[in-house]
Amino acid sequence: MSSLHVVLYQPEIPYNTGSVGRTCVALGAKLWLVRPLGFQVDDRQLRRAGLDYWQHLEWEVVDDWEDLLQKLPTDRLWLFTKHGDRGFYEADYAAGDALVFGSESSGLPPSLIQQAEGRRLRIPTLPEVRSLNLSVSVALAGYEACRQAGTLPPGAGA
Q1: Any binding-site annotation on 135?
Q2: Please, are residues 4 and 100 in contact by the beta-carbon 8 Å criterion?
Q3: Do 153 and 15 form a contact (C-beta atoms < 8 A)?
Q4: What does the DSSP assignment read for 30-64?
Q5: Is the pTM of this model over 0.90?
Q6: Phi then psi for 97, rounded to 5 degrees?
Q7: Which helix (H) or strand (E) segment is 146 a member of?
Q8: Which 8-state DSSP code applies to residue 133?
């Protein structure tokens, strides 16, 4: 089982997904992509952003949210949203957790956010910034989750 799962719910931009894939390889995390996607998984832009790391990535595409829940080997999902109840650094992460991020243009749908009471997290920013780039958000959250769970890559420090 992967030390961490990163879920992109209906991602739209191949470059972001490619960058997230690279971060997942760096962390030893599995990447899950929930359809519909805003690109083809064989998109040249996607692979270019992932560079030569993509071949090392453990990833899977699922048809919808219910399909994800059936296949994901954990029920510990942390949903990242600007409507989060607390900061991402306040969560109590464990090995095998799943970090869930919404699409670049609309985030996660309210129906999913409402179901995640106590598991809605936000990355705080100053009011002038609506949100951070998806790949930046995944990197911040992924490294914090691995730090807390004790699964950082060798030599990363703690």
Answers
A1: no
A2: no
A3: no
A4: EEEEESSPSS-TT-HHHHHHHGGGGGG-EEEEESS
A5: yes
A6: -65, 160
A7: helix 134-149
A8: -
**CA-CA distance, 79 to 155, in Å (whole number)?**
28
pLDDT (tens digit per residue) in 120-135: 999 999 999 988 999 9
Pick from 40, 41, 52, 116: which is nearest to 84 by CA?
A: 116
Residue 3, annotated as binding a ligand: no
Domain 5-149 fold is Alpha/beta knot (3.40.1280)
What would the pLDDT profile of 61-73 be if each residue is shown by its tens digit?
A: 999 999 999 999 9
Mutual orientation of helices 134-149 and 14-27 as an angle, nearest 10°?
20
Residue 113 counted as an annotated binding residue: no
Beta strand pairing call for 120-122 and 30-34: unpaired
Buried b (16+ CB within 10 A) or exposed e, 115-144: ebeebbbbbeeeeeeebeebbebbbbbbbb
For the record, the structure tokens of 11 come out as: 């991602």
